[in-house]
Amino acid sequence: MYRDLKDFINKLKQENELLEINTPVSSELEITEITDRASKEQGMQNKALLFNNVEGYNMPVLTNAFGSYRRMALALGVQDVREIAKRIEELIKPEIPDSLMEKAALLPKLYEVSQFFPKIVKDAPCQEIVITDGSMLDKLPILKCWPMDGGPFITLPLVITKNPRTGNRNMGMYRLQKFDNKTTGMHWHKHHDGAKNYEEARKMGKKFEVAVALGCDPAITYAATAPVPPGIDEMIFAGFLRKKPVQLVKCKTVDIEVPADAEIVLEGYVDLEEKRIEGPFGDHTGYYSLADEYPVFHIIAITHTKNPIYSATIVGKPPQEDCYMGKATEQIFLPVLRQILPEIVDMNLPIEGVFHNCAIISIDKRFPGHASKVINAVWGLGQMMFTKFMIVVDRDVDVHNLSEVSWKIFNNTDPSRDCIITKGPLDILDHACDLPGFGGKMGIDATKKWAGEGFTREWPDEIIMCEEIKRKVDGKVYE
Lower CB count within 10 Å: N or C terminus of the chain? Predict the structure, then answer.
């Protein structure tokens, strides 16, 4: 794995996955336009971008670092992100030992997990420079991404908070709109753990300290976006990804630990009562999310390495960098989903669905109504509750082949029988529902129908050529 972000950048250079741009560029809209074009290129034309000459700033900007399947795997130190899924699968296999030998067999797993816990260090690169006055946010090349954005936004922040009651740490990724040199918005939604910690602090009347890390080892950055189960520290998950513990250092002015390898750290607090209008913001849906009131983050100190690199991401009409992070999550956390619903064979969260709008799931169908059971069960699982369209197909369907999936939907379903229409929580960014965060959702059973499901006709056989003819054609040369 990587020591820090700069180590990862060097790897991108070695792998011909980085384009360095020395031409002067503006942090207002221009970097976004260049990055958007790069993200939509095919093959090796789609590269990570390092802007070394940002007008008005002495700090390079890195974008599109996770913006392909290959770079996403490189970021996590694997050839294929499914390797991580296999490790998770081995770790969570349900094993109830009933003998001394079986208990002993679990010791290597317990030992492996123990190696992932973060370690506290006294000195860290992220604190080589400490600023408590003067130019703070004004020294960072924060991007204004799209023409109608409410201002510049920090788009790849690792927001670290603690639950004031339990002391448990949480790390999430919530955009920060720059209001001025020392304040930003804090765009966390009510479903986010950071927002829950904030609400707990409001109930207790406690000051709510916050730290924000920018530009970490990519495994740590990815961990901030991952849907880890409640109660599991994202720093432990990052250690699992890295196969070595994350080193943390205590902040200079707040009682929070941050990754020691971060390029930049913002320290401060979120006022318990103050709110300001934040947004609009050109979001990953391809539309502007509307302006609304959000808490305010007050920055009292910034620390950084001697020569920091500012890391950012661009979101907008897919495909963008966040799509590949989402596809990694789809496969990495599939074993966790299977642990709860073992009938699930595979899952695809299509890029066009921007994570929460669509899930295509193949199942090993075993009884009448099985697809309906899976649809309702998945809607009850963590962030999957936001899924607007849930499509279930038989196990032999390749869920990643959208043409095959479409064929099954259009030919295997009777809308009056096979569609489940209900209401429930939706992502706050869903602009199509009548109420923010709440609206309709649909489940589609595109499996073959059984007599036990009320199907009174005979289901036809699928057209498949016989193996003898296939072998005959394979063995001939036709000229």
Answer: C
